[in-house]
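thread from #wetlab-drylab

HS: before we spend reagent money on co-crystallization trials with zinc ion, can we at least see a predicted complex? here's what I'd submit
DV: go for it
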Amino acid sequence: MTEPFTLARLGDAGSEIPVVRVGDRALDARSLTADFDGAFLAADGIARVAAALDTLPELDGAGGLRVGAPIAAPGKVVCIGLNYRDHAEETGAALPAEPVIFMKDPSTVVGPFDDVLIPRNSVKTDWEVELGVVIGTTARYLASPDEALAHVAGYAVSHDVSEREFQLERGGQWDKGKSCETFNPLGPVLVPAADVADPQALGLRLWVNGTPRQAGSTANMLFSVAHVIWYLSQFMVLRPGDLINTGTPAGVALGIEGNPYLRAGDVVDLEIDGLGRASQKLVQA
Ligand code: ZN
C-alpha cells in the first residue's frame, strides 16, 4: 500500500524537473525518467513511481521553483465542445447529438501559474475551467466505453482559454480562437487515475478577480469521460501523453450579461475537487 502521490514538473519553462509530490514533500524523479512525457507514461511510468517512492530523494529548493504543466508537451490536445447542457444553453447552441471535437495547438500548454497572454487585437478573451484527461496507453477503435478509462494515466485542472471573436465571428473552425499562445494552462499536478474514484463526480470552479464565475460538476457532462475516449478512438488514435479537455460548464463571459471578457491585469483562479488549484494573470501579448 503506497501513499497517494501526484506528478508535477518544476523549474524554468523547457527545463522542468519531474517531481513526485507526496503530502507536502517534493521528490526528485530524475532517477526514473528525464521527464513526465508520453514515453514515460507508455512505459508504465506511474507504476514505476509507486514502486520507487521510498527511494526518491527530496528535491532541494522545490518551493522556490516555477510550477510547470505536469506533463511535457502533449502530442495533441483534443477538446470537446458544448459538453455541458448549461454551457450549451448559455451560448445559444443546440445540444450536440454526438461529441463536438476540435483541436488545440499542443504548444499552448503552459504552467498553472504562468501568465496568460491576451492576443493582439483580441476583444473577447474568455475563460473555461475543464477536467483535463491525460492518456496513458494507446486507444484505437475501442469496442465500448467500458474499455476507455483503463487508457487514462491521470487527471489535471485544465484551462481552455478561448477568444470568442476569433472562434465564432472570424470564419472557419474554432481552432483559431483556441490556439493562441499560452491558451492552455495545465496543472498544478497530474493525479493518477487510480486515485480519482469517479471522474464524473468532480466539482469544477473558477473565479475572475475573486468573483465566482463557474461552479459545475463533471456529473453534468453530456458525454462522459469514458464515452468521449471511446468516441474519439473511432476517429483518431489517442496516444500516451495526449491531453483531452472535456468541456466547460456554464459561467463563461460569452454567456454572462454584459460579457465581461478578460483584460490585462485580471486574475483567473480555478480548481477541481482533488486535482488542486491554479491561478493565472492576464497580460497583453
Ligand atoms: Zn473548452
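DV: The pocket of zinc ion is lined by residues 79, 128, 130, 160, 245, 247-248 (CB under 6 Å).
HS: ok that's useful, forwarding to the group
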